[in-house]
Design goal:
This protein has 2 domains: 88 residues, Helix Hairpins; 146 residues, Orthogonal Bundle (Helix Hairpins). It is 77% helix and 5% strand. The chain contains 6 helices and 4 strands, in the order ααααββαββα. The longest helix is centred in the middle third of the chain and has 83 residues. Zinc ion (ZN) binds next to loops. The site of zinc ion (ZN) has 8 residues, from loops.
Length: 246
């Protein structure tokens, strides 16, 4: 392929823009915020599940307390009635009196058990309520810091995108001034070669693959006409003979 030496030199400007665009794209994907956000969201989901668990526990404990409270009502009423019957002297036969006393004792024990259950549920309710509030605080704090990290990520991506846009405009302007077939060749090599389509020949070294040309390859590079598009024998990139042309 033939192209004016000046157009070949512009390949280096085009390459500089493409390299900058590739670096900006890489910077976007390599932001440390990405990992922090993923971890934060996982922690948030875990805390959310814990909160659901503790709220279920809270409602169970409230039901338990209500049940114990409801169960106590008839037992207390019966105890009051029994005590009144005894104290009013309504039961006079010794057997009936003993049975009444047994029942009073039994009811007293039953009340104490129910009150114990209620008290225990109340204590558990207190600690579950404290845990619920601790979890809610932790979630709020995490959400706050996540929002800040997401904002920082978005800002950096927007910044990079703006810079990419500028570079792309410059790049397109440069490419527009160059022979189309040269740009097509350069782009094809660039995509295939990890982002570098054209490289300067610096002394004996190809700036693309960093290898020194053999004596015969170098002779070929330097003796080729100025408008001849030369390719590196090692990496096949377009070799821009800047030193020769300047
Ligand atoms: Zn090379």
């Amino acid at each position: 392929m033939k192209a004016a030496a000046s157009a070949q030199l512009r390949l280096l400007d085009l390459q500089a823009e493409d390299t900058a665009i590739a670096q900006l794209n890489h910077r976007k994907t390599a932001l440390p915020e990405h990992a922090v956000i993923v971890e934060g969201k996982a922690a948030h989901a875990k805390l959310g599940a814990s909160l659901v668990g503790i709220r279920t526990q809270l409602s169970d404990l409230k039901l338990e307390m209500e049940k114990a409270e409801a169960d106590l009502v008839p037992v207390r009423e019966r105890l009051t009635r029994d005590i009144k019957r005894r104290d009013d002297g309504l039961v006079t036969d010794p057997r009936g009196f003993a049975a009444l006393n047994d029942e009073i004792e039994h009811l007293g024990k039953r009340i104490s058990d129910l009150e114990d259950t209620e008290l225990e549920a109340m204590e558990q309710l207190d600690s579950a309520t404290a845990e619920e509030s601790r979890l809610a605080d932790e979630i709020a704090e995490l959400e706050h810091s996540l929002r800040a990290v997401i904002a920082a990520r978005d800002e950096q991506i927007a910044q990079a995108n703006a810079e990419i846009g500028e570079r792309q405009t410059k790049r397109d302007a440069i490419a527009g001034q160059m022979p189309a077939d040269l740009v097509v060749l350069y782009d094809r090599i660039r995509v295939k070669s990890g982002g570098l389509g054209a490289a300067e020949l610096k002394g004996r070294r190809c700036a693309g693959c960093q290898l020194e040309a053999t004596a015969s390859a170098l002779a070929g590079y330097t003796s080729a006409a100025a408008d001849e598009v030369v390719r590196c024998e090692e990496c096949e990139r377009i070799l821009v003979r800047a030193a020769v042309e300047r």
